[in-house]
Specification:
EC 1.3.1.12, 2 domains, binds 1,4-dihydronicotinamide adenine dinucleotide, NAD+ binding, binds 3-(4-hydroxy-phenyl)pyruvic acid, Rossmann fold, 6-PGluconate_DH-like_C_sf, amino-acid biosynthesis, Preph/Arog_dehydrog, single chain, three-stranded mixed sheet, six-stranded parallel sheet, alpha/beta
């Protein structure tokens, strides 16, 4: 068991990520007290029932009162309003953080509400599932996965080090990068792939009338994997695309160009072009596996409830 890094931690928004943080922090003995709040009364009631936090408050301001660390785990679109509510309650030396999948836009709406006596250290765990809500979280979610901690101009190195230590205590490996770089990288490795999944499942669903349900009946594992991703939370992903617009559009532009080149290769029977690309991409997958980076274990992706007895 690690020594407690923080006395009181407040989690605002107790869905998949917020509840997983609470469970993992408890598992590691990382914090003294965990307070939690959520805008949804049904979620607050369920969190009380599940019993993985010490205190459930009506408002985020109450949860943040006296906290050493406040982590905003709401959809991105709510981060600015939550920061406006908790900012004035932050005690001297307190750290405000978040888990949003986009960093630039989130920082621009949260940072103005951080008083000079507190610190702001944005973060993003690269771990999740297609499920939402407090029942979907589990303590092992971050084990062996990356958590990106963002350094902002003027950020306090000690506060950054504490947030890194917190994520490492939750089981993650940590790295730092600028918000701008983060948003470009995750546009191509996470946001555009989700958009592709939403699109292909949508297209197939539109064709379903024509094929009389064959789309679902015969869907093999490739299409099934897309349906898992396309089952991800609509609010969360709407907010991701609205808030990482420039980077996503830049990466989509490149993606569409490359797709058009493939379309052309198929039209003109250029088998060598297709074969070369498929050979390169197969090697990439093999490299990922060799480096032990394929930590998206299927049982993690498919989990919808914490282990019995938690
Ligand atoms: N789901 C995933 O796989 C991952 C999500 N993230 C980020 O984590 C954040 C949360 O995502 P999830 O936990 O999946 O969502 P979730 O939908 O499971 O939970 C979000 C919770 O926030 C609450 N909420 C909404 N507005 C609020 C407000 N104004 N004040 C207090 N509570 C409020 C909702 O009632 C809900 O319980 C998002 O910003 C997302 O970008 C980061 C990594 C992975
Ligand atoms: O479920 C999956 O495959 C994911 O890709 C989870 C995920 C979603 C959003 C993030 O910002 C990070 C991880």
């Amino acid at each position: 068991m690690a020594d407690a890094l923080f006395g009181r931690v407040a989690i605002v928004g107790v869905g998949l990520i917020g509840s997983s943080i609470a469970r993992a922090a408890r598992r590691a003995g990382l914090v003294g007290t965990i307070a939690a709040s959520d805008a949804d009364a049904a979620v607050r009631a369920r969190v009380r029932e599940l019993g993985f936090v010490d205190e459930v408050t009506e408002t985020s301001a109450e949860a943040a009162e006296g906290a050493d660390l406040v982590i905003v785990c709401t959809p991105i679109g709510a981060c600015g309003a939550v920061a406006a509510e908790v900012g004035p309650r932050l005690k001297p030396g307190a750290i405000l953080s978040d888990v949003g999948s986009v960093k630039g836009a989130v920082i621009s709406v949260m940072a103005p509400h951080v008083p000079p006596h507190a610190h702001f250290v944005p973060a993003h765990p690269i771990a999740g599932t297609e499920n939402s809500g407090p029942d979907a979280g589990f303590a092992e979610l971050f084990d062996g996965r990356w958590a990106i901690v963002v350094e902002t101009p003027g950020s306090d190195p000690q506060a950054v080090a504490k947030v890194r230590a917190f994520w490492e205590g939750l089981g993650a490996k940590t790295d730092t990068m600028t918000a701008e770089h983060h948003d470009l990288v995750f546009a191509i490795v996470s946001h555009v792939p989700h958009l592709i999944a939403y699109n292909i499942v949508g297209t197939a669903a539109d064709l379903e009338d024509v094929t009389q349900s064959e789309v679902i009946k015969y869907s093999a594992s490739g299409f099934r994997d897309f349906t898992r991703i396309a089952a991800s939370d609509p609010t969360m992903w709407r907010d991701v695309f609205l808030n990482n617009r420039d980077a996503v559009l830049q990466m989509l532009g490149r993606f569409v160009e490359d797709l058009t080149a493939l379309q052309r290769a198929i039209r003109w029977g250029e088998g060598d072009k297709l074969f070369d690309l498929f050979t390169r991409t197969r090697a990439i997958r093999r490299d990922i596996i060799e480096q032990g980076q394929d930590t998206a274990a299927p049982d993690f992706g498919r989990r919808s409830a914490p282990p019995a007895g938690e």
